Amino acid sequence: MLRDARIWFEKHAKYISHLDLNRFMLRAVRRAKLPLWVTEGFNPHPYINFALPLSLGFESENDCFDVRITEDMPDEELCERLRAVMPPEIPVTGISAPVYAFKKIEYAAFSLFFESEGSIDELGGFLTGDTIPVRKMGKKARKQHSEGELIDLMEYAKRLDFTAQGESAGRADVILPAGSRQNINPQLLVTAAEQTLGGGLFCKRILRSALLLNDLSAFC
Amino acid sequence: MPRFDFDRLVKDIQKPGRYAGGEPGIIIKDPHEAELRFAFAFPDTYEVGMSYLGMKILCGLLNKIPEIWCERVFAPWPDMEQAMRRQGVPLFALESRDFIRDFDIIGFSLQYELSYTNVLNMLDLAGIPLRSDERRELKNLVIAGGPCVCNPEPIADFIDLFLPGEGEEVLPELTALYLECKRNGTDKLTFLKAAAKLEGVYVPSLYKASYFEDGRLKCIEPLSEEAPMPCKKRIIRDMDKVYYPETFVLPYIEIVHDRAVQEIFRGCIRGCRFCQAGFIYRPVREKSSGVINTQARRLCESTGYDEVSLSSLSTSDYSEMQPLLTEMLGWSEKEGVSISLPSLRIDNFPKELMEKVQKVRKSSLTFAPEAGTQRMRDAINKNITEEDILSSCKMAFANGYTAVKLYFMIGLPGETDEDIEGIAALAQKIVDLYYASPDKPKGKAVKISVGVSSFVPKPFTPFQWEPQDTKQRLAEKQALLISCIKSRKISLSWHDAGTSFLEAVFARGDRRLGAVLQKAFEKGCKFDGWGEYFFLEKWMEAFAETGIDPAFYANRRREPDETLPWDHMDYYVDKRYLLSEYQKSLAALCTKNCREECGGCGAARLEEGICVERRADLV
Known about the structure:
By secondary structure, chain A is α+β, with helices and mostly antiparallel strands. Chain A contains five helices and ten strands.
């Protein structure tokens, strides 16, 4: 009897890429001895499918991947076995039956934590203004040494709040398109702020806090 | 409490995962309880160092001692080094991010002569004085192990003590002594003298070198009664009982060899005359197949690796290979683990077993004939014949292989043009064989990759007296080889002759090279083994400014009665034996391998491993 299970985890090991995470998880599920369905290709390996890749440098509080279970084993036990082999930086938080397909993910919520050499208010003013212009330097733009496409992040952001944390630090919470249809990298907010406000600004941490459906309700 | 902001430090750094630490399997201890902080320093990148089995063994071993916390540190890539220097962050350990300058012992692994500048650079980045005599305290003791220690002289100015041979027994003894001295407030010199009495410890400051006017070494003599003469390497006598890690630190980022590694024996029965490893790790000592099987299975379970590689020199010489593989396949297939053998002589192996161990990556076949003619191969005692190679290729082509890699050396002692032409001829024979094979893969072209490196004479080999070919001579030989290649199916690649030259200087150098090393480091030399960072001009300036002629070390023939800089090191291989092997080489005579016949190299003094097996046979 085959069934799919969705495993939820947090990723705080921020300096590993999506491919690194994939390799890590393949080893972790082997250590945990989960009864997983194995691909039947040239190089058989457990079937693991991640919801949405996370860029190098980002953390995530609410991420998931799907596996296919081959034996009758309760979720609690699957979860326990995994928890026992995960490092503190990548804890498993739960397991559920998949409700939506990954392609239903259209948005993601991010929190960006800034530190500023000067007053943080300037950043607050910029991020809560009417437009957030940024030059998007894609691969093509870099190759052709062009200036990149000028876009307004406010056209894409579904929500953008800024909270000052003292005089020189602050936090931006933003919802941006993410998924197979369209992606706006929250790093662009940092780039926009740097391009407009100049140096002295440092984004200490980017955290993806939720994966969202088209109506901004939680993906599950 | 971290004393620097790691996120700011790596903001624009490539591959920050190299420096982040936090991998599954790392050992974290309470710094207040760890009385002895040990930094295991690997003078190359994270990806190279993390692939090195010796580090996994020795870190694991040291961390089993409650008073010791052993952490890892690698050479930061130049972009990271620049950021560290700019932001004033000294070299730190991966596990705790504590600064290396606060550690008790910094232990370097010396795998390759061209990593010596990285040793100096890492000390400098740590804020630790480079020269041993500038470090007055017991703290920041700088030690080194690894194969290069068989001739420690070129780097002796910078290292307080070396560990010739294998480290599993001597490291716990040394750290126990260190702890005792640290508790008692013993001074550094007293500690060093006590350490010198341990078997497998060499304290260079307790020896003095003197030279003839023509520059040759006159002698190296001990300065104190504690300094043994000669200084013996240490070996592990029982490979079944020696510590082996139950798990590995699992790198997040991709490293060079990302798999479980199971050691199966030490030493090599072959005795190829150019190969240092074939002599300095004698005698051959095997682990029994039951121990290997248990350790390999445990390692795969604890790491989740789906590949285990059996590791040793000339792996297929393991005496119980077939029973071992049969035993391992009993669980590995079921658990989806593949077994890989780094070197497998496919000629003497049952086909069914070979198919099972080589299930994945069936693309290319690799041989290292090392020389182009049978005469030259006999002279270097590389006992592989053209028939071996051709019959293996024939079998491989029938099994679907279309690519063959061949490794050769040029500049071998006694080499003639005929030997160079022979390299091209052998490659051509394999091309012809492919097109003559009726059962070759249909519609596919054959691809022969020929890799050519320059011979580097090494200490403790029969060629230790030989001059290396000059750069010009090597260039002529390269040109000759290129002119002999007629087929487009054959591709040639070269190893840079400049790096081989520098390697030859430092492999057989003496203590006077310390000044050159320091000068080269001051000129910014680092990562010399990485082509993009190797600057021969800077090195030649360093030689000129210190008044040292590199050709004296690399390109000069040494007489058999000359004192060699490593003559005071005892690796249990007699100079007399090496000389007889050298003379046999001149006559292109082969020497039988240790399993066939004892050649009397001197390793039997240890009364272990294959030397005793042989004796049992003889009685």
